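User: Predict structure, ligand flavin-adenine dinucleotide.
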Amino acid sequence: DNVTGINTDVVVIGGGIAGLWLFNTLNKQGYKALLLEDETLGGGQTIKSQGIVHGGTKYTLSGNLTKAAECIAGMPQRWRDALAGQGDVDLSDARVLSEYHYLWSPGDIASRMTSFFASKALRGRVNQVKDRENLPAIFRNDSFRGKVYELNEIVLDIQTVVKSLVKGLESRTLKVDWTPDSGDSRLVTDNGEIAFIEHTQGNVTYRIHARKFVLTAGEGARTLMGRWGISEPEMQLRPLHMVMVKHAHPDPLYAHCLGVKTVPRMTVTSHPTEDGQWVWYLGGEIAEDGVERTSEEQIRVARRELAAILPWVNFDNAQWSTLRVNRAEPKQSKLLRPDAAFCQSVGNGIVTWPTKLALAPNLADEVGHLLDADGIQPSDNESFALPDNLKHPQVCEQFWSKHFD
Ligand code: FAD
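Assistant: Predicted complex:
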């Protein structure tokens, strides 16, 4: 048999935002890093996210500055630096959908807003938009009575972020199929360690070695850990039932609508389609509470909610659809929202979940510290590339691509 070795410093398994940001950073630092993906790059939770680079404001809705909010507060600047081409990764080609995410009250919950904004936590991070001409266009309607606040949180077109992160590094990515027996790849373990990954193309078998294997597989971590033979750290899934509405109203909306709970009543982001319309993507309370609803029921609730909070926007000719997606995170005792990017060393591997798209830079930092601690330093990666015959994963489609005409 024709067996060839491929030696790397780090193999990253899973090309969502966590794996991509890490992979790009490691390559820039000079590591021989390889990225393995079994579907499409970004096609998991990442493309289905709302693309908001949270600075933690929504976690302070309870009035307290929680640990989550503290850790995440530094993230918008990391992303802004990257978008300016001056960060640890280069996102200068990525598309910004909105420079700011907003927070608005429909008008009937002013008292709650007062105590919320009185909290020290928010001072300097949230500005009320007082002048009508500075309001996002959608709120410049005579029937709008509420208050609007501008958050220091950018909203991104995630597909362009994914493209930027893999650009120029395609030859260091590998499309894998782990299907037992018929697939082309398998994890070979030895005493609780990952010995190597075996990948077969034609009559050649490649043995991919690494000093560290990093699992950034999102929900897929469970199966991978099963093949590796480890059960810790445990993962939890929190399901969401998102709503998509494609319509021709000219103004986009990027905002959390405040309700009476600590979760926004609705979080809306807007995504431009090729035919000049918008897909509004609806999350927040409606998506968390709507998990048990059928798609039809969920759409009915969404219509009713939108009519209540944006009564002047006409959805008569809109197309509606829903999307079920899980958030994959480390298991927490009471299904609490995890604090920061999670990284845990296991043998010669690291199991990690960012818990938020926004925390991808934090995750790359944490993995960097663990590599340092193990003395794994960059080597010369200038000429590092996979053999030409190996397949590379594609970048994902937009999340709504299969939902509308
Ligand atoms: P994923 O994006 O799921 O990536 C995992 C990748 O690994 C996938 O590409 C998958 O195909 C691949 N994979 C799986 N198994 C294997 C395997 N065995 N081998 C190789 N590859 C494998 N966060 C924010 O900060 N802002 C938001 O606005 C926001 N909105 C959200 C909205 C929704 C509806 C959801 C569900 C989440 C949202 N989040 C948001 C959270 C955010 O999306 C996630 O925290 C983040 O995308 C997780 O990234 P990831 O790379 O860990 O996972």
